[in-house]
Amino acid sequence: MEQNVLFESAKKNSRIERNGFQAQEAKTKSDFREFYALYAQNMKHIGTSPFSYEFMENTWNLLHPENLRLWLVGKNRIIAGIAVYKYGQGTYVSYTGIDRERSRTYSVNPYMVWQEIKKAEEEGCQFVSLGSTSSDPKETHYLQKIELGGLFRKQTTVWYPFNFAGRFLLLGRSKTVNAWKNMRDFLPQSLKRGVERRVSEL
């Protein structure tokens, strides 16, 4: 990555912090609710439906903090957040929530992603996936990811459906999920074995 690109990215991040904004990891259910409100708002803004609150809450209950991390950015109130899945040697930026009115003068999404890149490096991860993006080099998200040091490549998506129990855990009522909290470490290992088996059959 060229030094001038790193420098420009660092300048933008410093500007956000000079204006009093800070990134923090979500720790509580209250943090999660703030993230979900911004996520739902962002999805509606781009013209698509968000996952239901129940689904996202169940995902939080089952996977946080071992396999799910949320970054929040705010000053007097939270204005943006991202959800990141942790799996194997990588992390995957998956969902974004932004208060577009309050954050429009700042590059908050690259700022949050930069926090994840630093954290992933501390944890010994080999890569951070920033998600799919248009191959148009003039497209905004393309430019943002290049600025963060992103490398673009074509890849195949492996889709592994939950078995009945997995679907029930994530789509069932919250009371049911609470009864399964002691299995939170089991679910990722089960998925890992399933994915590895399916990949080996390709």
What does this molecule look like?
By secondary structure, this protein is an alpha+beta fold. It has a single domain, classed as Gcn5-related N-acetyltransferase (GNAT) (Aminopeptidase), CATH 3.40.630. Helices cover 50% and strands 16% of the residues. It has nine helices and five strands; from the N terminus they run H-E-H-H-E-E-E-H-H-E-H-H-H-H. It has a five-stranded mixed beta sheet, with helices on both faces. Strand 3 and strand 4 form a beta hairpin. Helix 1 crosses helix 5. The longest helix has 17 residues. The protein is globular.
Residue share in helix: 40-55%
Might you state the CATH topology name?
Answer: Aminopeptidase
| CATH H-tier superfamily | Gcn5-related N-acetyltransferase (GNAT)
Biggest pleated-sheet summary: 5 strands, mixed
State the domain count: 1
**What share of the residues does DSSP label as strand, in percent?**
15-25%
What is the distance, rounded to the nearest whole angstrom, between the alpha carbons of the first and last residues? 34 Å
The secondary structure category is alpha+beta
What's the Cα radius of gyration? 18 Å
CATH class: Alpha Beta
Query: Uncertain regions: pLDDT < 50 for 5+ in a row?
Result: 1-7, 173-187, 198-202
- What is the ordering of alpha helices and beta strands? HEHHEEEHHEHHHH
Strand order, biggest sheet? 1-2-3-4-5
Q: How many DSSP-defined strands?
A: 5
| Nearest-integer average pLDDT | 76
Number of helices: 9
Shape: globular
CATH architectural category: 3-Layer(aba) Sandwich
